[in-house]
Amino acid sequence: MTAKSNPQDQALSIASPAGFDAQAVPIHEVCIGQPKLAANTLSPLSLRNRFQSPPVWQPEITDESRQVIAANIISKRQAAGKVTRAAVLIPLLLRSEGLTVLLTQRTDHLHDHAGQISFPGGRMDPGDSDPNATALRESEEEIGLDRKSVEIIGHLPQYLTVSGYSVTPVVGLVKPQAEYVLDTFEVADIFEVPLHFLMDPANHQVRVWGSDQGGRRFYSMPYENRFIWGATAGMLRNLYHLLKV
User: Which of the ends of the chain has fewer CB neighbours closer than 10 A, N or C?
Assistant: First the structure.
């Protein structure tokens, strides 16, 4: 959905300005000193138990979602029937050396979030019964993930984007496949990151970007030659918050 420049949607105009390079935005702080996860927290059994019996915890509202809420963008678009409901799968691959997170690199020509690193997923279709169905269908279409290999263990709070999406993150334990069949129109590449790396707050960077139109803070989690940031990093931060309690 393209950001328009009318006054009531002004917050949308800072979503993805032409030529925006998130990696060039200065690091404001690194989350060193925040609580580290216990050693056994990232086992499949611990994750299942945490989602089945979640503690009282406080999700983190990123600047992106906060600006959407403050500008009442989602409510306005709901009233106009223009909110796009979506779901992504956070695939936790069952590796012998520990869980890894399967991520996609989007192609550069896409209309929304081109070139960014994301979870497999997309907008809900009328035939989808719930966010689980959307996440599984989209993962199958985008990377050829066999839905029979996915054990859905829970959800994270909805994530609101300035591009008008209300995204449900669906968390699943996944048996790795020998190969994946990519939809090359949407997905340029796939790769894995150890879950323990992404859940270590010492690897969570806060970057602050400003312009004449405003500014915002966003998270990034660089890994090797990959730059994970924005909504994907924001969802991973909420998984960290759920598990650290």
Answer: C
